[in-house]
Amino acid sequence: MTEVATQSKKGETKPKNEKPKAVLRDDYEHPMEIYLRIERFPHIWCATCGIGTVLTAFISGLEKSKLDIEKVTVVSGIGCTGRTAGYLRLDSFHTTHGRAIPFATGLALGNPKLKVVVISGDGDLTAIGGNHFIHAARRNLDLTIICVNNFNYAMTGGQAGPTTPMEAIASTAPYGCYEYPFNLPFLAESSGAVFVARWTALHIRRLTNTIAEALLKPGFSFIEVICPCATLYARRNRLGDGLDLMRFYHDNAIIKHGANTREVDIEYQKQIIVGKFVDIDKPTFLQQRDRFLKNKLGNQFIPYKEPVS
Amino acid sequence: MKADPVGVAKGSYFMDGDHACAEGAIAAGCRFFAGYPITPSTEIAERIAERFPKVGGMFIQMEDELASMAAIIGAAWTGTKTMTVTSGPGFSLMMENIGLAVMMETPCVVVDVQRGGPSTGLPTLTGQADMMQARWGSHGDYELIALSPNSSQECFDLIITAFNLAEQWRVPVLFMMDECVGHMTEKVVIPDAYEITITPRKFYRGKKKDFKPYKFNGHTKIAPMVKAGDGYFFHITGLTHDERGYPLINAEAQQTNVQHLVDKINKNVDKISIVEEDNITDADVIVVSYGISSRVALKAVEFARKNGIKVGTLRLVTVWPFPEKRIKQLASQVKAFIIPEINMGQISLEIERCAAGQAPTILVPHAGGWVHDPKDIFQAIEEAVA
Lengths: 309, 386
Ligand SMILES: Cc1ncc(C[n+]2csc(CCOP(=O)(O)OP(=O)(O)O)c2C)c(N)n1
Ligand code: SF4
Ligand SMILES: [Mg+2]
Description:
heterodimer, A: 309 residues, alpha/beta, Rossmann fold, 10 helices, globular, B: 386 residues, eight-stranded mixed beta sheet, binds thiamine diphosphate, binds iron/sulfur cluster, binds magnesium ion
């Protein structure tokens, strides 16, 4: 266990390198357990589900970023992915469907010292929460958004959503989906995101590095992770099991850093362009606000300070 | 605790209810505001937008009311006092996350400056038809607190009470103004900061590892809170949960959780409820009212008294939780309750329920757009004693 991984950084009761106490069994040992609410395990996710991989990559990325984990807050909406917040031993909030971003906005502006991360599903973030998504990006709020794209509304049984590719079958698209899907990196970039990347659940090392990078990037960062949902999406479309989907990613994912986001659409069972697409610098909402108001109001301006307990 | 002088604009003003509400919120210590413009509440947001940068507050205009409500709950968990304001259609959009605030037991204040509905209805004209929505608007079983001011001065004074109640009971408090109260300009006196009493956030001080965000064993003790970022690594959810804040999806957990949410308000009505009574003791008829209707009713009451009718008045300053016990007591001693309200009968139903047949309840309805003609209220009083 690394030092960064020790929760009691401020040296409360635990000496730094003492093994964290497991809750379920005394012999439980997992390098990530201090970041997890082990007492809540087993988790709800199916075997081979990609969400667990994203959780693992997030924890590794967080360690790598060396951020003070006391100041890292995770917010999720509702869905299979929405359960992520509940398994992380961080300050974590499981909110309402689609509203993770505005809830996170309140946290991030209420205490600018926090690093607020949103981990949620494609439906949650870009259908019911789509309006919040584009506006948070437009404002360049200091948020990191990790979107698990499994091409369907998994939690509710595999309905079609804004990311379901044309032709793909879903429970509410029994003859195949005939709507145009979102190209999420393009949506994020054109809305104002300063950091945009996409990986699949197969690209664990790259995803981890990208998460670490995004966590340290001021402003609105967006990471789309293409994830297997073997239980619903793959089963309905006869795409095989989780392993088959990983094989598909292996054979069809093309790494193109700096790709034009306009050209990274995902078509049904065709190539998936992955990589870091956007990484630009732009003042965040708060930097912009404080500079602007200071300029206009001079000494009358009192900057916002988070409350003390 | 006394108010922070930075936020108290001491002085005597000629001010409308909306502006007074904004000043009251700032005096109460509100430093986080998220909202979306809508008539007739916009002036509150405008005043906050102007004042906040000068008092160290954080103002953000969100993309809609769903976002505004979610943002103030998130911000509340950073330890700050938060508010949003809206009217009619926006209030409907806030319902989903008002439920989240109830479930997460998050203190915050939601102002609804009521206008005529349903739908877009009468954007610029008054109404009082959201009173039941305030009580039942979000899905599921819950209790919360709703207040109803009737003057500019009270918009200032009572919004401070609203913030204090929110902290005391860890509950969203709804501030049910109406367009008349919001847009009526009258004298407002803002006192010295030391004359304003503020209920601060109650923070947990125990061992980090023992912290639980909720306490379900007894409605007398409300669990103290922590802030995000302080190293408690806490989790909270809109799902049914246990005291640790962890989801528990079964009937037993539901019973415990919901019972707690309901009990903490219902079993403390006497501590929460504020009613204003006048000439009640020997009254034959009691006019029960709230908001602007309580001011209009005074004219009718005055006239009735001149005509020798013994009329008392009861004003609901807090509308929810309902002063059930008090209405029951009064029902046994009066000939009738008269309820003028700018809706087709909402609070009158509640009075009827509490009176339980002991005294008739006479509704004086008004569909909205304007206040009652006092003559209509007088007529109802006259008929009740005839
Ligand atoms: C307001 C509202 N509408 C609908 C639902 C039902 N619902 C729960 S999760 C979900 C879809 C989740 O899909 P996604 O965000 O893609 O997450 P996934 O389960 O695929 O990880 C829906 C529609 C809800 N909880 N709230
Ligand atoms: S239904 Fe799909 S997304 Fe949900 S846990 Fe199972 S595999 Fe994962
Ligand atoms: Mg999904």
